[in-house]
């Protein structure tokens, strides 16, 4: 990681010997002209404002259109990441540059374009409290070299992105400000990507963790569902928010508790003005992925606001209220799962299945350790079963869907013996393994990365992940319950098969209802 830290500090992109002396690419967008970078066969545009800075009176307001400028604005460095308490050992480390003025996006495109080009838009994860688009893990150059235009962006996080208070009653688009940022960025893509050679009618939205949850929400949002034509959900649940989902009323109570903790009372405009006068660092505090639990009384996370998020994704899916777009969906073999209380014994873990506890004992007979069993079920409840639920819902509505489970572990990490953990698929999909594993990337690791990215790119280009030289990925059907298993042995063992955890997930499904 030493090399990565140096890159973050110095800006490897700008100091790279591969940045060409060729004339900087210049593009006219609605706000004005921008000049980017030329790197080998890729044009790069960084830190483009897609909305007006959400400062002062615009804190806790829906994003407004970015102001126009005269002349040429340089788009050669990332904008600041949105305010957050940095996360130690983050899977996608960020430069130490945070600001409330953070609503920017980035674009990588092939230097030589051949007609309207498919677009892939990435929503980063981080539990809605961490993350940003400036991590080297999210570098879009490999996507551009594969023939698509790649877009990433920042959105407001934590209490600056998800906050409710009675003083906001009567305003439009309140509460889920981070999600309104995402919608604004997608609208910007629709309005401007054609100037970069992109096809606004062929946009694939993809994201991981909180980014995946966001796509679940946008698929059912009347404000977001028409802004993309395909979607990929990576470890994004699909039933509930990963951060816990509050109602608008509950979120207002939490917002008042936060205000009271800072000596602010009342529910009128004066209270809102006092909240807007607080320093951004005071609003963020120590809130990050590791401290969310202790902050639950003063941080709501995403909420059902009756506008952007009218209902939980699970309810929207069950009612058929979602965009019918082709979908890839899946999770990892050792994905995220929360065990809040250490189990007493194996029987106590299985007791949650109630009348099905005997069937559960048989289905989980291969897991004898009580802690491993508790984690397996928690992971299935949070990640694996919701992914299947989403796949089944799309298939039931005759919408093409492919399910995957990522089980490959980079050679450097295989000694840990725990499987593919949360977010570990990302550097394979982005083909940015050196950003994570530095010089210890094996040929087999690289083969898996090439395969994963090709599936994603094929899907963006054609609406199906399959292509020549790739293991066949069969479309999901509830009757066969088949998924693509990206095996620990690598590409040679990757195959479509009936889910080995089918019996277990059938039991877990009953717990979700």
From TrEMBL:
<dbReference type="InterPro" id="IPR029058">
    <property type="entry name" value="AB_hydrolase_fold"/>
</dbReference>
<keyword id="KW-0378">Hydrolase</keyword>
<dbReference type="InterPro" id="IPR002018">
    <property type="entry name" value="CarbesteraseB"/>
</dbReference>
<dbReference type="InterPro" id="IPR050654">
    <property type="entry name" value="AChE-related_enzymes"/>
</dbReference>
<dbReference type="InterPro" id="IPR019826">
    <property type="entry name" value="Carboxylesterase_B_AS"/>
</dbReference>
<comment type="similarity">
    <text>Belongs to the type-B carboxylesterase/lipase family.</text>
</comment>
<dbReference type="InterPro" id="IPR019819">
    <property type="entry name" value="Carboxylesterase_B_CS"/>
</dbReference>
<dbReference type="GO" id="GO:0052689">
    <property type="term" value="F:carboxylic ester hydrolase activity"/>
</dbReference>
<protein>
    <recommendedName>
        <fullName>Carboxylic ester hydrolase</fullName>
        <ecNumber>3.1.1.-</ecNumber>
    </recommendedName>
</protein>
<keyword id="KW-0732">Signal</keyword>
<feature type="domain" description="Carboxylesterase type B">
    <location>
        <begin position="379"/>
        <end position="498"/>
    </location>
</feature>
<feature type="domain" description="Carboxylesterase type B">
    <location>
        <begin position="24"/>
        <end position="345"/>
    </location>
</feature>
<dbReference type="Pfam" id="PF00135">
    <property type="entry name" value="COesterase"/>
</dbReference>
<feature type="signal peptide">
    <location>
        <begin position="1"/>
        <end position="21"/>
    </location>
</feature>
């Amino acid at each position: 990681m030493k090399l990565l830290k140096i890159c973050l500090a110095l800006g490897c992109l700008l100091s790279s010997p591969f940045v060409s002396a060729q004339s900087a690419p210049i593009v006219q967008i609605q706000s004005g002209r921008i000049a980017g970078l030329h790197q080998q066969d890729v044009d790069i545009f960084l830190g483009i404002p897609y909305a007006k800075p959400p400062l002062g009176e615009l804190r806790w307001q829906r994003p407004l259109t970015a102001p126009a400028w005269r002349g040429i604005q340089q788009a050669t460095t990332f904008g600041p990441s949105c305010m957050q308490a940095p996360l130690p050992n983050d899977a996608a480390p960020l430069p130490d540059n945070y600001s409330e003025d953070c609503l920017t996006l980035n674009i990588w495109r092939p230097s030589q374009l051949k007609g309207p080009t498919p677009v892939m838009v990435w929503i980063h994860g981080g539990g809605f409290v961490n993350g940003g688009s400036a991590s080297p893990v999210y570098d879009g150059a490999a996507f551009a070299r594969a023939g698509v235009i790649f877009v990433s962006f920042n959105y407001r996080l934590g209490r600056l992105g998800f906050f409710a208070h009675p003083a906001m009653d009567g305003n439009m688009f309140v509460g889920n400000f981070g999600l309104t940022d995402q919608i604004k960025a997608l609208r910007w893509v629709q309005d401007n990507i054609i100037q970069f050679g992109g096809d606004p009618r062929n946009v694939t939205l993809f994201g991981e963790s909180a980014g995946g949850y966001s796509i679940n929400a946008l698929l059912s949002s009347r404000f977001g569902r028409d802004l993309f034509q395909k979607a990929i959900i990576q470890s994004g649940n699909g039933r509930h928010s990963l951060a816990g989902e509050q109602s608008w009323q509950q979120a207002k109570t939490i917002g008042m508790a936060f205000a009271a903790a800072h000596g602010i009372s009342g529910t009128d405009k004066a209270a809102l003005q006092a909240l807007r006068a607080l320093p951004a660092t005071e609003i963020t505090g120590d809130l990050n992925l590791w401290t969310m639990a202790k902050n639950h009384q003063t941080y709501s996370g995403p909420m059902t606001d009756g506008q952007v998020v009218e209902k939980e994704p699970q309810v929207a899916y069950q009612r058929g209220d979602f965009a019918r777009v082709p979908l890839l969906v899946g999770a990892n073999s050792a994905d995220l799962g929360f065990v809040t209380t250490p189990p007493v014994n194996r029987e106590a873990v299985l007791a949650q299945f109630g009348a099905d506890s005997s069937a559960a004992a048989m289905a989980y007979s291969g897991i004898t350790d009580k802690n491993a069993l508790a984690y397996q079920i928690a992971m299935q409840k949070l990640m694996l079963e919701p992914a299947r639920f989403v796949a089944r819902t799309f298939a039931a509505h005759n919408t093409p869907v492919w399910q995957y489970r990522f089980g490959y572990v980079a050679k450097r990490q295989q000694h840990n013996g725990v499987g593919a953990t949360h977010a570990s698929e990302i550097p394979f999909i982005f083909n940015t393994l050196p950003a994570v594993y530095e010089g210890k990337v094996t040929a087999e690791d690289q083969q898996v990365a090439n395969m994963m990215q090709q599936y994603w790119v094929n899907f963006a280009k054609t609406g199906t992940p399959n292509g020549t030289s790739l293991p066949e990925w069969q479309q999901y059907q509830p009757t066969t319950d088949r998924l693509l298993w990206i095996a620990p042995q690598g590409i040679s063992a990757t195959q479509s098969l009936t889910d080995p955890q089918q019996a277990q997930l059938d039991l877990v499904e009953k717990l979700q209802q």
